[in-house]
Amino acid sequence: MALLGSRRKPGLLASFIHVDAAADAIRALRARGIRDLVVYSAAPNHEIEEALDHRVSPVRLFTLIGGLTGLFLGNVSVDIPLSGTMFVVAHFHMVMGVAPLLVVFGAIYHWYPKITGRMLDDTLGQAHFWVTFLGTYAIFFPMHYLGILGMPRRYYEYKGYEFIPPSAHWLNEWITIAALVVAAFQLVFVFNLVHSAFRGRRAEPNPWRAASLEWATPQTPPGHGNWGPDLPVVYRWAYAYSVPGAADDFIAQTAPPEAGGQAPEEEGAVVNEVPA
């Protein structure tokens, strides 16, 4: 519709391009801010870093791929020649395929101790993350270059096309090898799940030092009903982290009021300050 209207009103097309590009830029900057906030506020704990890698990696993909390559596709004059190429394949699969999959991996690493009562192997977890994360870029990042070369998508094979240079075929071979390596390495993740369920180290009730209520259950994994006959009493929201004067980096929702970290109940009260 924007293209049809632009034939009579060029200003309409320019407005569409500027708004769309601005939205992509804002999304990229917002994702980068979230990533930096989470990374730099994390405690220097090796196990927390392992789970954090998987949970933050989708944000990295949205920042570097969804935000930046979206700027190209948000510009109609660039989107038209790129929309039928491998550039769109790479952009779409990184944002809509790989990023949600990494969210699932992050959720599994996060909730595995609560579900099984055991910790996943840290070495295997780190290896699985880095091979998957870097391998994803090894697969899809070269596709952007192929798209800029004009390599079309939805083709059965690419023989006999003079505009496709030999380097593109070599790059396709590289993408295939990287995809096979990343796919095969997911067996390490499956092995870690099965092996750790029986041989993994026993998990603490709150291994991530989280303030939310689900990590305060009396048993790990929780029994039927989660809490038993007595329900917990909640004194604050689940965001009491880095409270000045607190003994730990977090204050659980079930901690007594004198532990601090409560929202102010009256004007002029100090937020997240432990009483002297």
Give the helices and strands, then pairings.
Blueprint: H1 2-6, H2 10-41, H3 46-73, H4 76-82, H5 86-116, H6 122-149, H7 166-199
What does this molecule look like?
By secondary structure, the protein is mainly α. The chain folds into 2 domains: 2-199, Cytochrome c oxidase-like, subunit I domain (Cytochrome C Oxidase, Chain A, Up-down Bundle), CATH 1.20.210.10; 209-276, no CATH class. Helices cover 60% and strands 0% of the residues. The chain has helices at residues 2-6, 10-41, 46-73, 76-82, 86-116, 122-149, 166-199. The protein starts with a helix and ends in a 77-residue tail after the last helix. The relative contact order is 0.09.
Number of strands: 0
Q: In oligomeric terms, what are we looking at? A: single chain
Percent of residues in helices: 55-70%
Shape: elongated
Low-confidence stretches: 1-10, 12-18, 23-47, 265-276
Output the keywords.
276 residues, Cytochrome C Oxidase, Chain A, 7 helices, mainly alpha, 2 domains, disordered C terminus
Structure in a nutshell:
The chain is mainly alpha-helical and 276 residues long. Helix content is 60%, strand content 0%.
